[in-house]
Amino acid sequence: MTEPSRQLSDPRALLEGYLDHYRAEILRVLDGLPEPEVSRVPSGWTPVALLKHLAYMERRWLVWDFAGEPVEDPYGDRDDEEAFVATESFEEIKEFYLAQCERARQVVAKRSLSDPASQIGRFQPPKEPPTLGWIMFHVLEEYMRHAGHLDIARELAGGQEAARL
């Protein structure tokens, strides 16, 4: 998926467009990895564990925090030391990831960027809940950072460098 049009000026269209762009970018980079379950970095995280993290990140921010829907184990992407973990196969995690992205799109479609997050999850009183626009921007920032991490992992694995914008 290519970047959204350079003529876009609507904040919602930009946020939604770039989120979908980076969702697709993550999968494109992972598809170029010979073994997404193998770590190539000193810290030991694996690309498939990072994909699992992104699925849970979408779920935490948009479904649990913003929409206020109860979710089982919102931090299921981490172990007791807070490290990203994955015991499932790449295909299982990819399916879970795609489902979380679709659920997040459904949540976002029904609401305004100025709507505040629920007071469930991490934003229970007395914390002031962020707006949907703020959350979407934060989620986009997570994607941009982790897409760069995956580019490096792909290069270290001997894969072709991912073309960036």
Automatic annotation (TrEMBL):
A Pfam family per the record: MST
Domain of life: Bacteria
InterPro entries: DinB/YfiT-like (IPR034660), MST-like (IPR007061)
Protein name stated in the entry: Uncharacterized protein DUF664
